[in-house]
Amino acid sequence: MENQRKTALITGGTSGIGKELAKLFAKDNYNLIIVARDQAELDSTKNELQSFGITVKTIAKDLSDMEQAKVLCSEVTEQVDVLVNDAGQGVYGLFKDNELEKELGIIHLNICATVILTKHFVRQMAGRGDGKILNLGSVAGKLPGPWQAVYHATKAFVLSFNTAIGEELKDSGITFTALMPGATDTDFFNKAGMLDSKIVQDKEGLADAAEVAKEGYEALMAGKDRVIAGWKNSLEVHAANLMPDSAVAHTMYEQQKPVNQQ
């Protein structure tokens, strides 16, 4: 039975949507490779996931460091049947005020690590003629985002990238799925330093991470190219498609500005 199990590699697999996805794979009898920065969180998550009777391997890496992302690829000797590029981060504030190195780190994590891992594992999958890749996009990728200008731009990259390589490899046996959540109740906002933003203060508007993961998992297994999690987010994206980008940016400015700013 162990030899027949498929393996999923999940970055950012110790919290939020990534962890909820890991649980879904575990329930479906996938062995797991979970990657995150903190070994203690990896160990805790491993103990939780092993209760499903699967094998869990942990790898501690900071994927905002390009060399660590490359080393990760060389350290994984197992056949990876599903790659989930979930690790991602944002930083809150006006572009002119934010620290350059923080924003470059976000670009490295959200874009460069995704490219490095996808390049490595897609070549292996193409050789077998089989595989699945789930890239964590966001509705942010369709909406210019003042107060998170760099983050939104990185997610626009992910959506474009996912669609383009999906077309290139449409006859390869590999499927590429982009999961596009909206604001979700995870630790993302705390790490981004945006707990004072209007969009976060309105806790009732935040989606449940488990529900988002379920929509993404089902889309991945069905081979869909993308899924917008939640009907409200779908409505927002479709409405934005009918508006000038400048108007969308103004709307996002108002939604994401600090609650104490008029």
General description of the model:
This protein is of the alpha/beta class and 262 residues long. It has one domain: Rossmann fold. It has ten helices and seven strands. Strands 3-2-1-4-5-6-7 form a seven-stranded parallel beta sheet, with helices on both faces. Helix 1 packs across helix 8, helix 3 packs parallel to helix 4 and helix 4 runs parallel beside helix 5. The termini are far apart.
**Beta strand count:** 7
Shape summary: globular
How many domains in all? 1
Number of helices: 10
CATH homologous superfamily label: NAD(P)-binding Rossmann-like Domain
Strand order of the largest sheet: 3-2-1-4-5-6-7
* Cα radius of gyration in angstroms: 18 Å
Low-confidence region ranges: none
Query: Helicity range of the residues?
Result: 40-55%
- The CATH topology turns out to be Rossmann fold
Per CATH, the architecture is: 3-Layer(aba) Sandwich
Rounded mean pLDDT score: 90
Structural class determined from secondary elements: alpha/beta
Biggest sheet layout: 7 strands, parallel
The fraction of residues assigned to DSSP E strands is: 5-15%
Helix-strand pattern, N to C?
A: EHEHEHEHEHEHHHEHH
CATH class: Alpha Beta
Topology:
Elements: E1 7-11, H1 16-27, E2 31-36, H2 39-49, E3 56-60, H3 66-75, E4 82-85, H4 100-128, E5 131-136, H5 149-168, E6 174-180, H6 188-192, H7 198-201, H8 209-222, E7 226-228, H9 231-241, H10 245-256
Parallel strand pairs: 1-2, 1-4, 2-3, 4-5, 5-6, 6-7
